[in-house]
Amino acid sequence: MNHAIPYSQVTPKHVYVNRRRFLTGAAAFAALAKASLANTKLSGVVKSAYNVGKEKITPYSVISGYNNFYEFGTGKDEPAKLSKNFRTMPWPVTLEGEIAASKTLDFDAILKLAPLEERIYRHRCVEGWSIVVPWVGFSLSTLLKQVEPTGQARFVAFESFYDRRQMISAREAGIAFPYLEALRLDEAMHPLALLAVGLYGETLPNQNGAPLRLVLPWKYGFKSIKSIVRIRFVEQQPRTTWQSEWPEAYGFYSNVNPQRDHPGHSQKYEFRLGEGLFEQKRDTLLFNGYGSQVASLYAGMDLRKNY
After folding, report:
1. Considering only Cβ atoms within 10 Å of each terminal Cβ, which end of the chain, N or C, has fewer?
2. Residue 177, C-beta contacts closer than 8 angstroms, at least 6 positions apart
3. How many folded domains does the chain comprise?
4. Is residue 304 situated within a structural domain?
């Protein structure tokens, strides 16, 4: 099936201390939520069995106007503003490392690998807020199976696009670029791990990680790396951006766990964006509620130590 799309185009300590503004600045948040970009409708999208049931979907205006994307600013409203002219075509993605042969696929080739599915996932940010999003894409494993990993491949490392001409500097962002993330190979091959190319039936807005990003609903949001350009199969556990920047707060696994607090705040509760300041508080669920699907990946592990 051809899904060709005509394209025209977490938190460090010093930023985290401003987190309280999220709870007190309801009026400011409402203004932020209006920011969004027009996108191309995706065709041939099928409904997936992977969804959260009857939970209320977070409004599109919230998802497209309140973002973590440090390459385009550390304020939640900045990515929507600063990424408007981000050039996302052409978009080659390279797979390399412990595989039989390196391979580069362009975005159109990736779109043709499998039918696009709409998957409605809940998400939990390490900062304490949560959302429910109808993503469009297919399992990451579909892409990873385009190469032949060697027996030494135990982890999959991901790298985001970075161009100083289009994005802010590492000094301004307070973290190193390019942004790096990684998974164990079995995590990356799990069917819940989504390679997303859209949301709400449309192509991804630039501020949401266009044109290609991961979505890992059982992990904290910063693990779902945006604007992917490189994937490496490696033997040793690689360092990741936030693990390097603040290891006490951002571990390699970063599975949602109400019993393992962030150094600056509890993880026992979350606040659902778009549902009103006083109605949105709820209990955080282990693995963000996806335990029946993913808990077996971590059998026997100390989830407080392996955070």
Report:
1. N
2. 71, 160, 162, 167, 170
3. 1
4. no
